[in-house]
Automatic annotation (TrEMBL), chain A:
InterPro entries: ABC_transp_permease, LivM-like. The chain crosses the membrane at residues 6-25, 37-56, 62-84, 159-180, 210-229, 249-275, 296-313. One of its GO terms (molecular function) is branched-chain amino acid transmembrane transporter activity. It is found in: Cell membrane. This is Branched-chain amino acid ABC transporter permease. Its main location: membrane. It comes from Miniimonas arenae. It is a multi-pass membrane protein.
Length: 328, 484
């Protein structure tokens, strides 16, 4: 059992694109759930739309900034389509509608009839849309080592992606910090605590909810772009489990906090790699094969989610008084 | 710069391969028309030899084009093997030893609008050393082209070619549309009306099974207000237990169904006693409980994959007789499933409407506090509902597994949203509405294949779910007071 390399793997995962992508998605979910109290069970759908929007428009020859705008626009449209009809209904309806809508996107995306656009269930290969992003890097090509971590400077799973990704996370945190202190953010919190009270003050609750849904969805789409820039657009890799993981991350770090989602993502991925590494190192191959170790990791994620929501719904950083999880 | 050279060579090699593949594709019509020249050079990865046994075949769409990228799983002795069809629709796999193997077609990888013509996705093949045995999957609209050879497994007529050479797989190539591998396909030759009727029948069967699987979720919602996201995994549990009973412990199917139902009921009891009853006592909010079911769903799903792997598992390996009733065909197995589901649903409806327990359950659903005040033991009613829900979900899982011919670790969770769609459409908390909703969803799912690609049919049901929530959130038979 090589603890040195296990530790390196854990840290590498914590600074890697997956943790970044989930942190962005969880910050978006925090705006939905932590600030506004909306139960969005389709965050993976926003991520998948962002990924498709970015990749397809890049393949069509659009520059990076335009492709990112397409991804954002796709998320905005999706949020409006979902939100306009459902935000007037009770909370658990929004949960079922969002999860169904995310599934629709995945099913349509993996359908063979659209494979000329989406690549069907094989998805879009990373190399077909990564060029323009790595081309936008100001750094020289080649590989770069920082301590034990060696990645290529610009290609695919690169330092460039990590730098841009963490910069996005920092910007998103700043945005949430500013929003929480703005009058707009206070209205959102008011909606979360008591919708009718806010309505009686003459605020347009419906409009505020819609704005929150759009903002969080756009952050989800950005997460989706980071996620696919490290690998490829594969509809089944952004399915329902991704949404559930994002929820676990948000509840682990602490909803309604600025750094909760980021801390949650770091801990979630670090712990997952640590547990898998320990199981792989300590349990003989004959009892648990490599693939089974992976599944065992997900079993633990599910159990963690159950325990968290019951025993510590405010997560690590949250304030229990601030978090009223109620159907509305 | 040294690094650059090999990729270049690689590209060139790939180009050559591509050209070869194209040539083979062009040559295929010749093969199909029975000319079958020796083509041992490109027979795919498996070439039979004295110590090598192969299973192979060619899959083509109803129009006769090669179906590229279709994934098949071959299970028998040793680890499961997957094979993928190449540019010519051809696939082959080398199996570790002679013996019986089950070839399962992954329907999700079929080209749009295609499905196995006889509606089954598994074939049983006896592999022999030095030979390639065929496993044929004629494609076409489901049910439109008649069934497999009645009574026997399709392979009985498929692997007639025993000449020990590589062209066995080529000879086993039967273009869909030619009736050489079928008998009794005359009366269902694929006329338009028959296809619609066949799809309607398939929709009714699927809808009834869906109703059976979903009724438990509806009862739980009705009595406790909880949307149980782990219900799909209770459905999977039933199918997997039935698979283990039949294939591992060699129990007869009838006994396996009983085992699965008992296990499902036990699982329902355990979930209530171990998780949800304590949460209700702690007065944990209903939304928190819903997120608990989501974590539970994730944990159960991964546990199933841990123990059963990701491959489709056939509960029964034999292919059941297909009966022809007027213009439609139904397999004996599906008919039995339909009957069992119908009887059980009827029994549930009778218990709810006609017995004291049923009245008590409805009272709890209406108003738990009032029910408790009038002497009903609310907790024991809820316990009963959880046990019933688990047992019914497990029964639904077995029947769905038999109907789809295989069960996978995610069969139930893939159906979860369809179940939600069914009970939302019918009216949350209304069991009769659930049945109506499930039948509508089943019909829509099957009939949507008339206009939509086959792999998008579940999406159509989810669109209905969303539209219903917008237009009539309480559903067909639901009460308006339930909406916020």
């Amino acid at each position: 059992m090589d603890f040195g390399s296990l530790f390196t793997n854990v840290v590498a995962e914590m600074i890697g694109p997956t943790a970044i992508a989930y942190a962005l998605a969880a910050i978006g979910l925090n705006i939905h759930f932590g600030l506004t109290g909306l139960i969005n069970m389709g965050q993976a759908g926003f991520m998948l739309l962002g990924a498709y929007g970015f990749a397809i428009s890049t393949i069509a020859g659009w520059p990076v900034w335009a492709a990112v705008l397409v991804a954002i626009a796709a998320a905005v449209v999706f949020a409006l389509l979902l939100g306009i009809p459902t935000l007037k209904l009770r909370g658990d309806y929004l949960a079922i509608v969002t999860i169904a809508a995310a599934e629709i996107i995945r099913i349509v995306g993996r359908s063979t009839s659209l494979s000329s656009f989406t690549g069907g269930s094989n998805g879009l290969l990373g190399n077909s849309f990564k060029e323009s992003f790595s081309g936008a890097s100001p750094f020289p090509d080649g590989r770069f080592s920082l301590g034990p971590f060696t990645y290529s400077m610009n290609d695919s799973n690169s330092w460039w992606l990590r730098i841009v990704g963490w910069a996005l996370v920092a910007l998103a945190c700043l945005l949430v910090y500013l929003l929480m202190r703005s009058p707009w953010g206070r209205v959102l919190k008011g909606i979360r605590e008591d919708e009718d009270a806010v309505r009686s003050l003459g605020k347009n609750v419906y409009g505020y909810k819609l704005q929150a849904l759009v903002t969080g969805g756009v952050l989800g789409a950005l997460g989706g772009i980071v996620f696919t820039l490290a690998s490829s657009v594969q509809p089944d890799s952004l399915g329902r489990p991704v949404t559930f993981n994002t929820w676990t991350i948000l509840l682990l770090g602490g909803a309604a906090t600025v750094f909760g989602p980021v801390l949650g993502s770091l801990l979630f991925w670090g712990a997952l790699i640590l547990v898998r590494g320990l199981l792989r190192g300590l349990v003989p191959e004959t009892i648990l094969s490599t693939q089974q170790v992976e599944q065992a990791g997900w079993v633990l994620v599910g159990i963690t989610l159950m325990l968290l929501i019951v025993f510590r719904p405010q997560g690590l950083l949250g304030d229990k008084k601030e978090l009223a999880i109620n159907v509305r | 710069m040294q690094v650059i050279a090999p990729p270049g060579a690689h590209v060139r090699r790939r180009l050559v391969l591509l050209v070869l593949a194209l040539l083979t594709a062009l040559a295929l019509p010749l093969l199909a028309s029975g000319v079958a020249p020796a083509r041992a050079d490109s027979a795919g990865p498996c070439t039979p030899a004295a110590d090598v046994a192969c299973i192979g075949g060619t899959i083509r769409t109803a129009a006769g084009d090669p179906a590229v990228g279709v994934v098949l799983t071959i299970e028998g002795s040793g680890d499961p093997i997957t094979a993928t069809t190449d540019d010519t629709g051809r696939w082959s796999a080398q199996v570790p030893e002679a013996g019986e193997y089950t070839v399962t077609l992954d329907v999700a990888t079929l080209p749009a609008g295609e499905s196995p013509r006889d509606g089954t996705t598994t074939r049983t093949v006896t592999a022999e050393l030095g030979k390639t045995k065929g496993a044929l999957f004629p494609l076409g609209a489901a049910g439109a082209g008649g069934g497999a050879t009645s009574g026997a497994t399709p392979t009985a007529s498929a692997s007639t070619d025993d000449s020990a050479s590589a062209d066995a797989s080529a000879a086993a190539t039967v273009p869909p549309g030619s009736a050489t591998d079928e008998t009794g396909s005359g009366e269902t030759g694929g006329a338009g009306t028959n296809r619609v009727l066949q799809l309607i029948l398939a929709g009714i069967i699927f809808g009834t099974l869906l109703a059976l699987a979903a009724v438990g979720a509806n009862l739980i919602y009705g009595t406790t207000g909880l949307s149980n996201f782990a219900h799909g995994d209770l459905v999977t549990l039933g199918g997997l237990i039935a698979f283990a009973s039949v294939q591992w412990w060699h129990l007869p199917v009838g006994v396996a169904i009983l085992v699965a139902v008992v296990a499902g009921g036990a699982a329902g009891w355990l979930l209530n006693a171990g998780i949800f009853a304590p949460l209700r006592r702690k007065r944990i909010g209903i939304t928190q409980q819903m997120i608990v079911t989501i974590g539970l769903a994730l944990a159960l799903l991964s546990t199933y994959m841990l123990f059963f792997g990701a491959n489709p598992l056939p509960i029964v390996r034999t292919i059941s007789t297909r009966l022809t009733i007027g213009p439609v065909q139904i397999s004996e197995q599906s008919l039995w499933s339909l009957l069992i589901a119908g009887v059980v649903l009827g029994a549930v409806a009778w218990i709810l409407q006609g017995t004291r327990v049923g009245r008590a359950t409805r009272a709890v659903a209406d108003n738990p506090a009032l029910a408790a005040a009038s002497g009903i033991k609310v907790e024991s009613i809820i316990r009963g509902v959880w046990i019933t829900a688990g047992a019914l979900a497990a029964l639904g899982g077995v029947l769905v597994g038999l109907y789809l011919s295989t069960i996978r670790f995610n069969t139930g969770s893939a159906l979860l949203l369809l179940m939600f769609a069914a009970i939302t459409l019918g009216g949350l908390g209304s069991p009769l509405g659930g049945l109506i909703g499930a039948l509508i969803i089943g019909l829509v799912v099957e009939l949507s294949t008339l206009v939509l690609p086959n792999d998008m049919r579940y999406a159509s049901a989810l669109v209905i779910l969303i539209v219903v929530l917008l237009v009539r959130p309480q559903g067909i038979l639901g009460r308006a007071e339930r909406i916020g």
